[in-house]
Write a structure and sequence with these properties.
Length: about 450
């Protein structure tokens, strides 16, 4: 298939009009809606040359905008010479087709725009598969519109069943075949990922999440220093956006970057990115990066909270990071924000301000969930030893002179303590705490000690 959607969405450097129908009762006001859309459109490399907003209880079923507004839009297209109209609403296939026919201009709706941005930004094999799948699922019911559009520009509008109609059937078949192929490839990738998870037990993982353009990748570079991907080193199948991060007095952990979030993510996209965001869900700690210089900052925070909730991550557990403090001229604005979100850390990934404090906070948070234990046990205690291999980071190992006993120092998540298989001949001591546990299970209370 000659991938018509790609041509259609080659929107780089084009001139666009932004349009939206907003219900008077919506919590999003006119300015907010278009500001965000403008940000997205500019991210896609499109120039905004005009805007049009209609306040309407419900979008018109056939054309989204009402008749009068649609005529106004048509005039505006001529006047500003727009090549593209971007709707903040998501349009049904027929709405898109109707507006396209009426205005003679390419129409892109919110989901298409986001899909396009994701497609441009997808770097890893898996992300590329995910975006392509989401795009195909989104475009399948809209193929007819694409062909109508192509026929119109070629001037080849035939009566009745034109070449587009036949082409349409062929395209649908090819598209369905490709969809199955993508699903198969994705499940292969997922299976491979599952196999690597056990290797990652020893490494704590911190994930960066946040609104698009918040500065996650910049922060990742600033924190990890070296610009080295670890993909072809230890974990061959790891996503290439995971890097080693050396924490002072703690050791090495993994820091991973994730896709940026936006309001109203197309649901196909959320579904197919679930597995990528699975990384974030499995992380030991999340850093929620925010562009604190953006006037929409609070909306961005809310959006990220929503997406996190949607994929089953408790947003309360994330450390909020106010980035780009160097860009804020009026510091009192930052103070107001900090009062509202009192646990946030202010940093600038560019100037380096606040990074030490962030690092220390990460160490403290990681440490609070972990204990250093010293365990003395017979070498024959295979159950316990294999538990420790799987669920702790072994810091040192010493054998008695007759090789019958082993003393291990290990860092272990407190939630694993009560699960350890101790026996009469085993002694466990938690560093910094008085009690020594022999034979008994470590009681549940120790989990919440700190
Ligand atoms: N002034 C300033 N600019 C920053 C800072 N951090 C990031 N930026 C800029 O913000 C822009 C976006 O940064 P990225 O690191 O790509 O943002 P991201 O969150 O990874 O974005 P996505 O990958 O699109 O989700 C870039 O132009 C950065 O140079 C900062 O602390 N100060
Ligand atoms: Mg990034």
């Amino acid at each position: 298939m000659a991938d018509p959607k790609r041509e259609e969405l080659q929107v780089k450097e084009k001139k666009a009009i932004l349009a939206a129908v907003i219900s008077p009762s919506s919590h999003i006001n006119k300015e907010q809606a278009l500001d965000e859309l403008r940000g997205l459109v500019e991210t896609a490399g499109v120039k905004v040359v005009g805007t049009l907003v209609q306040s309407r209880e419900h979008p018109h079923p056939a054309t989204c905008l009402g008749k009068g507004k649609l005529a106004e839009l048509k005039q505006m297209v001529k006047h500003v010479d727009a090549e593209l109209i971007v709707f903040d609403n998501n349009l049904s296939p027929s709405q898109g087709r109707n507006i396209e026919e009426e205005t003679g201009t390419v129409i892109v709706d919110r989901s298409e725009l986001i899909l396009d941005i994701f497609a441009t930004h997808a770097k890893t094999y898996e992300a590329k598969l995910q975006v392509e799948l989401a795009q195909l699922l989104y475009f399948r019911p809209r193929l007819k519109r694409l062909w109508t559009h192509l026929e119109r520009i070629e001037g080849g509008v035939g009566a009745g069943r034109g070449p587009g109609e036949k082409q349409l059937e062929t395209d649908r078949r090819l598209l369905d075949k490709r969809v199955s192929e993508l699903k198969r490839k994705l499940s292969e990738v997922e299976r491979r990922r599952e196999r690597t998870v056990s290797h990652r037990f020893e490494h704590l993982t911190v994930s960066l999440v946040g609104y698009t353009n918040a500065g996650k990748s910049t922060l990742m570079n600033a924190l990890t220093g070296a610009d080295v991907y670890i993909a072809d080193k230890l974990f061959a199948t790891l996503d290439t956006r995971t890097r080693r991060w050396e924490l002072p007095n703690w050791g090495e952990i993994l820091l991973s970057d994730t896709v940026g979030f936006v309001r109203d993510l197309p649901h196909h996209l959320v579904a197919s990115f679930r597995s990528t965001l699975e990384e974030a869900r499995q992380a030991d700690l999340l850093l929620h990066v925010v562009d604190s210089s953006n006037p929409e900052v609070e909306h961005h925070i809310k959006t990220v909270y929503q997406v996190l909730d949607e994929i089953g991550i408790d947003h309360q557990d994330a450390i909020l990071v106010f980035n780009k403090t160097d860009k804020i001229e009026d510091r009192s604005k930052l103070d107001v924000l900090r009062l509202k979100y009192d646990n946030a850390i202010s940093v600038s990934a560019v100037s380096g301000e606040g990074l030490d404090r962030l690092t220390q906070t990460v160490i403290d948070r990681l440490a609070s969930g972990y204990a250093i234990v010293e365990i003395d046990t017979p070498v024959g205690n295979g159950k316990l030893l294999s538990q420790l291999e799987d669920h702790s980071l072994i810091l040192s190992r010493e054998y008695s002179s007759d090789d019958s006993r082993v003393t291990l120092q290990a860092r272990i998540a407190r939630r694993f303590l009560p699960l350890l298989k101790l026996n009469e001949e085993t002694e466990l001591k938690i560093q910094g705490e008085e009690e020594t546990f022999v034979a008994d299970r470590v009681p549940e209370e120790t989990v919440n000690k700190l």
